[in-house]
Amino acid sequence: MKPKGLRRPGARRSALALVLGGLLVLATACGPNDGNKAGADDGGKGGAGGSGSPTAAVSTAVVSILPKDGASNVPTTGSLKVTASGGTLSSVVVKDDKGTSVPGTISADGLGWTPDDHLDTSTQYTVDAVAKDGEGRESDKHASFTTVVPKDSFVGFFTPEDGSTVGVGMEVYLHFNRAISNKKAVEHGLTVTASPAVQVAAKWNGDQDLYIRPAEYWAAGTEVTLGLNLNGVEGAPGVYGKQHKTVHFTVARRQVSIVDAATHTMTVYRDNKVLRTIPISSGAPDHTTYNGKMVISEKYVKTRMNGDTVGFGGEYDIPDVPHAMRLTNSGTFIHGNYWAASSVFGTSNTSHGCVGLHDVQGAGDPSTPAAWFYANSLVGDVVQVVNSKDRTVQWYNGLNGWNLSWSQWLAS
Predict the structure, then answer these.
(1) Is pLDDT at 11 greater than 80 in this prediction?
(2) Is 210 in a helix, a strand, or coil?
(3) Do 103 and 115 form a contact (C-beta atoms < 8 A)?
(4) How many angstroms separate the CA atoms of 157 and 161, rounded?
(5) pTM of the full predicted structure?
(6) Judging by beta carbons within 10 Å of its beta carbon (0-12, 13-18, 19+), is residue 207 exposed, middle or buried?
(7) Distances from the Cα of 36 to the Cαs of 47, 51, 216, in angstroms?
(8) What is the chain's Cα-based Rg?
(9) How large a percentage of the chain has pLDDT more than 70?
(10) What residues are paired with 303 via a beta bridge?
(11) Distance CA 394, CA 404 (A)
(12) Spatial separation of the C-alpha atoms in residues 305 and 147, rounded to whole Å
C-alpha cells in the first residue's frame, strides 16, 4: 500500500515540462524576431498589420513663374507671368524691394496671372504663388528677379497745374523732355478722368507733345484728374519714364468770347448769356489775326513784347504791355493797349495780329476794358475770332485743338 500524499516521479517531471514549455512559448512571443524587425518595437508602423495612416499624396498642381528665379535685366512690360497646370492658381503675391505689392489679376480659368500694370526699372521683385489641384492639395513656388537698368529717362511737363481752376476750353497738355517712339505705351501710363464722366482722347503733335481733350468743351463744374504712372514705361529704346504723380483741376463757369474782326468788337458770353461787349482792334490788313477758337494759356499783368521774338524784326519793342493773355505759342495775345488812341478801338484793325483792348500804361486802372476782361478771365477760357482775313489757327499752336472736329481729333 502506497503512503498518501506521494506522487510518482514521472508525473512531477511531466508537470515541470508543461510549465517550462509554457515559459518557452511566452519567451518566443515577446522576444525579438530577427526575420521581421518591424514588430512591436516600431509600433507596427510600416508592418503588414500596422495601424499607421498612408503617406499623403502629392498635389498634381504645378506653378510656373517667368522670368526665372534670379533673372536680371528683365523688361518692365510683358515679362512677368505666373501660370498653373494640373490645377488652378489660388494666390499670387508680388512685391518690390520696398515691400509694396504689385496688383495683378488671376484669369477667369485660374490658369494664369499677370500684373495690372508695368513694373519699375532697377527694382528687385519677389513672386510667391500657390496653386491647388482638384482635391484641394496645394503646391507653391517662389522666385525673385531684377528689372532693367535704363540708359536714360524721361518726364512729362504738364498743363494745367495741380489745384488749378480753369475755363471750359482747357486741354490737358504734356511736353516730354525726350522724343517718344513708343507712344501707345506712354498713353497707357496716363489717365484722365472726369466727374461728371466724359470720354477723352489723346492726340500727338510730333514726338514730344501730347494733347488730351473731350469731344466738346468741359461742362462747368467738372472735376478732372490727370494720373501720370510713367515709372518703368519704355518711351523709346532704353529710355524709361521716371514720374508718378496725380494732378487735379476744376473747371469753372463757361466763358466764351467772340471777337469779330469785321465789326471790331468782342462779345463776352458767360454761361451762354451776354456779359459784356467790348470795342477791340485786331490785326492790320498786312498782319491779320488768326481765325478760330483759341484758349487762354498764360496771364501776365504786364509783360514785354518784342517783335524780334516773333519774326517782326525791330518793328516794335514794348516793355510793359498791360493785361496780356496768351492765345498761341507763335505770339498771339489778347492784351491791353495804351499807345493807340482810344478812337482806334471799335473802328479799325491796327495790330501785328494780337487783339487789343483800351488800357492805361502801368495796368493800374481797373475800370479800363482790358483790366475788366483780365480780371474776369481764367486760363482755359475760349476766345474765338471770326471774320478775319486769315486762316484758321493750327490746332497745335497753343491749346487750340477745338478747331478740329471730334472725328479729326480721333484720326491718327
Answers:
(1) no
(2) strand
(3) yes
(4) 10
(5) 0.81
(6) middle
(7) 9, 16, 91
(8) 42
(9) 86
(10) 321
(11) 9
(12) 50
